[in-house]
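Support request, priority: normal
Reporter: lab tech (M.K.)
Component: structure prediction queue

Hi team, I submitted a job for RNA polymerase subunit sigma from Streptomyces nodosus yesterday, and the status page still shows it as pending. I've pasted the exact input below so you can check whether something in the sequence is tripping the parser. The sequence length should be 246 residues. Please let me know if I need to resubmit or if it's stuck on your end.
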Amino acid sequence: MHETVGAYALGILDDAEATSFEEHLAGCEWCAGQLDELAGMGPMLAALADLPDSQGTPAIGESLSAKPAPRLVERLVDEVSERRALKRRRGFYLVAAAAALIIGGPLAVLAVNGGSGGDSGGTVVASSAEAAFETMNDKVSATDPETKVDAVVAMEGKTWGTDTVLQLKGVKGPLKCSLVAVGKNGARETLSSWSVSEWGYGIPDAKTDEAKNPLYVRGGAAFTPNEIDHFEVMTFDGKRLVEVKA
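Reply from support: The job had stalled in the queue. We restarted it manually and it finished. Here are the results:
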């Protein structure tokens, strides 16, 4: 559900989807923090979308219903500039993703390949996940003897819980997977979910760099680091690919 926070902030979910996300939001401090950072982005993007180009033709205009006054546009842009300056490390990529959602169509990127992607947007997010993985000093790893899937989980404590980046190797698809944190009290929390393509990730003898490179997945837990017993990489049909002790 974590990837839904941007769409919820922009008000583009239908009633059922919004209700489902609100139920998730009630118990997820990470999403609550992201939603707070994205507050007000919907009206701002709608305002920017209504600005005319050099020929006086609206760039998006008719696809958005909000039509604020020009003075409001100027104020909103100033507010966004100030927000970016104060929260650049986390806010920049969220703002970029929200803008792409409005301007370029649906976008959902939580899991990214470490190699150079075909488009600049994917490369930026991949660099962010890899960079975070490299800077996190607390790392735990394991390789499952049966599935041969190798996982390294990097962790960093935050005021809201635990920031994590998963490095995954030796997994082939097509699969849909989740990273789950299991607390010492037995509680389970899904940190992120993603799809594995047919060729997989982190396959040493693969024919393409895309398949040879590991997959990096970033997520967040409400648990603090010392509350986590272990991590599990699970398929959507309930199969555990690898377990990593925290």
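The mean pLDDT is 73. The first strand starts at residue 111 and ends at 113. Let us know if anything else looks off. Ticket resolved.
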